[in-house]
Design brief:
13 strands; 8-stranded mixed β-sheet; D-Maltodextrin-Binding Protein, domain 2; alpha/beta
């Protein structure tokens, strides 16, 4: 009995020791993980020197150390899929406004802690104009401003070669439906953007007669609206040189096409690059109207370091940091402080813009880049685009048909699903055979 007792005691002691080691190891792993801040962002969308400077700032604020792991994506849908299906534990991601709305709708974001000592004041630097755009995404009991910190914003319009096409012609989205421009223009390979253009242009008569608002036209997803958009895309398709995701601005700088659909930040970059090689480009928001977009930071559902994430967002909202990020990417920061306004003022610009809506009273006559900061008159004919939510599949099916894709989205998803299930089944069978052979041996 004594031997049995000693044996049992020995086994129990070993078990306790192993448990303690495992617990300590897990605790250390958790503590180690909590010192890492995982960020997922668009490519070329931040001054990466800030990523090395933030840990020092964070330690000054909290007395704690943090290490940044930084990854980039090219398509916001890829980011969303990783969060929604892969359960990736990124602490911060920077989607566009429609994906933000979808993430909120599907409970994939956590609230941002804005009461973080002395640094919380920086959150107030965001323009009320951009904050108000968040209202469209708020849900019952869930205020979007508690879940999103806007980052960059802008308009969509037409970038054109001033030596090849007149400003008057590109002042209407109709230039994309004009046969004389066939093969000389590009359109974005983005169903959100194209839907917006086709719907606003297709409904412009009603908009001009005040029978419909731009916001309603851009965000109407009834069967009749979707059918109209499909018709307009099919009518436009034969005339465009192609669908582009990011190479349009480079083609414009080389003078290879006359005009293209563009986001204003890309236009700012391309205009400067083209000028260096003697190509004159400009940008306009067509008379029919367009969209106001913004990208914002959110903390995904599976984040592990929400504290450092909140501090990083406060860090980005500082005036000097915002200006550095603007210099890198060419877009306009959502930060609207006097320091930013002063830094962006350029007396060499002869036209004046009314930026009261963005910076507040006293900024009605600013000499500032009108592409980066559109005048209030331009903003008045722009609307924010919501996500299609439960109409996403229907719109994607339409988008595939309208573009002339050989396989519709539903069929593509179905075939992919079959291959995925088959791959999992084959892997399971291989593991099963391996275990069987190992057991026999």
């Amino acid at each position: 009995m004594k031997q049995i007792f000693n044996k049992h005691f020995y086994l129990l002691a070993v078990a306790i020791l192993l448990s303690a080691i495992m617990f300590q190891s897990c605790k250390e792993d958790n503590q180690s993980r909590m010192k890492v801040l995982k960020i997922y962002n668009w490519a070329d969308y931040i001054d990466e020197d800030l990523l090395t400077e933030f840990p020092k700032w964070y330690k000054e604020q909290t007395g704690e150390e943090v290490k940044i792991m930084y990854q980039v994506f090219d398509m916001t849908e890829v980011m969303y899929t990783k969060i929604a299906l892969g359960k990736e534990d990124f602490d911060l991601v920077c989607p566009t406004q429609a994906i933000i709305q979808r993430m909120m709708h599907n409970n994939l974001v956590l609230p941002i802690e804005q009461n973080i000592g002395q640094s919380n004041k920086y959150f107030n630097n965001i323009s009320p104009f951009i904050r108000q755009r968040l209202d469209a995404f708020s849900l019952p009991g869930k205020n979007a401003a508690d879940y999103v910190v806007p980052y960059m914003w802008g308009t969509s319009g037409i970038m054109y070669n001033t030596g090849l096409v007149s400003a008057e012609e590109v002042n209407s989205w109709g230039c994309f439906w004009n046969p004389k421009n066939k093969g000389k223009m590009l359109m974005k390979d983005s169903y959100w953007d194209v839907y917006n253009v086709a719907s606003i242009y297709g409904n412009y008569e009603q908009i001009a007669q005040n029978k419909r608002t731009i916001y309603d036209a851009a965000n109407a997803h009834t069967p009749v609206d979707i059918q109209l958009v499909e018709q307009k895309i099919k009518e436009m398709r034969p005339y465009i040189a192609g669908w582009e995701a990011d190479f349009g601005k480079e083609m414009m700088t080389r003078g290879e096409i006359w005009f293209t659909y563009a986001w204003n930040g890309d236009a700012v970059w391309a205009i400067e690059e083209a000028a260096a090689v003697g190509v004159s480009l400009d940008y306009v928001v067509p008379k029919e109207g367009s969209n106001i977009w913004f990208d914002g930071w959110v903390i995904p559902k599976y984040a592990q370091n929400t504290k450092a994430a909140s501090y990083f967002l406060a860090y980005l909202c500082q005036s000097d940091v915002a200006l550095r990020n603007m210099d890198v990417c060419g877009y306009s920061s959502a930060v609207a402080t006097p320091e930013v306004a002063e830094a962006q003022t350029n007396d060499e610009i002869t036209v004046t813009s009314n930026l009261r809506y963005f910076f507040g009273a006293g900024y009605e006559n600013m000499h500032i880049n009108p592409i980066q900061y559109p005048d209030s008159v331009v903003v008045a004919r722009c609307a924010i685009i919501n996500d299609f939510l439960d109409k996403n599949e229907t719109v994607l099916e339409m988008w595939s048909r309208a573009k002339g894709d050989s396989m519709n989205v539903g069929m593509a998803v179905f075939i992919f699903g079959i291959f995925f299930v088959l791959a999992v089944w084959l892997l399971y069978q291989r593991i099963k055979r391996f275990r069987k052979r190992k057991k026999i041996s």
